[in-house]
Each structure stands twice: as C-alpha cells, then as structure tokens.
Amino acid sequence: MSIRITIACPEHLMSQANQFALCVGNSPADVQTFGAATWEDGAGERYALASLLAGARFPQLAAAPLAAPAHAPDADIAGATQAQSVLRIWSPASTDSFPEVGVDRLVAVIGLEAGLAIPLLGLSPIPTEV
Fold it and tell me: What CA–CA distance (Å, rounded) separates 3 from 26?
C-alpha cells in the first residue's frame, strides 16, 4: 500500500533534504526530490515542495537511524541526519496539532492529496515574470 506525502522544504535545507530522500528512498534519482524553491510563505521565505507516493511505513523509516543505501553507498549521512532531525510529520489521523511551516524545519503531510496539503502548509507559488 502507498500513501501520498507532501513535504515542504526550506530553500537552505534542500541539499540535506535530498540526501535524506536518497537514504529513505528506493533509487539514486531520489537525490533530486527537491528541485527549485518556487513556493513562499507569508514572510517571503522560499520553499521547495515535493509530493510523492511512498510506502505505508514511511513514518517509521523516516524516524529510524539512517544508513547509506545500496543504491547510493556515498550518501551524505550527516546531511541526511540533519534533515531528519528537523522533519515534522503530520496526518489527518494525528492527535498532534499541525506543525507550523518554518525555515528551521521540514513539514511532511501524509495521507492527503497535494491539493489539500498545500493550503495547510500556507505556501503560495512564487509568481513568475513573463
């Protein structure tokens, strides 16, 4: 079974978050999970968003000690661990309050389609100049 996960990543944590995605993911391509920071909060801080399907065990895997996976033996475990330490996971079934998005944390919403998760995150697309 798969679950939908939408993750907001502050721009300055993208490298570490990509290493985390590489460690908990299934492919070398997971190092590209967070691309451009094209979303912003009310204060103008920039974020990258990723919405993906993952295994139902994602919350447990995300909290477990990290190791370099077979598909990426040179993964940056220190960077991945830094991202892991600031990851906050929330689901509609959670009894915890929704974690506020901020430049000091990654926020993952599980179990909701991106169209429902993004408004909870309070992010808006950065307008592109034409």
Answer: 15
Q: pTM for the complete prediction?
A: 0.94
Calpha distance 46→49 (Å, rounded): 10
Tens digits of per-residue pLDDT, 14-57?
A: 999 999 999 999 999 999 999 999 999 999 999 999 999 999 89
Q: Scan for tokens 């509609």, then name that residue.
A: 92
CA distance 27 to 83: 18
* Strand partners for 53: 4
- pLDDT at residue number 130: 64
The sign of the CA dihedral 90, 4, 56, 40 is: negative
Rounded Cα distance, 18 and 82, in Å? 11
CA-based end-to-end distance of the chain: 42
CA dihedral sign, ordered 115, 117, 119, 125: negative
Neighbouring-strand partners of residue 52:
5
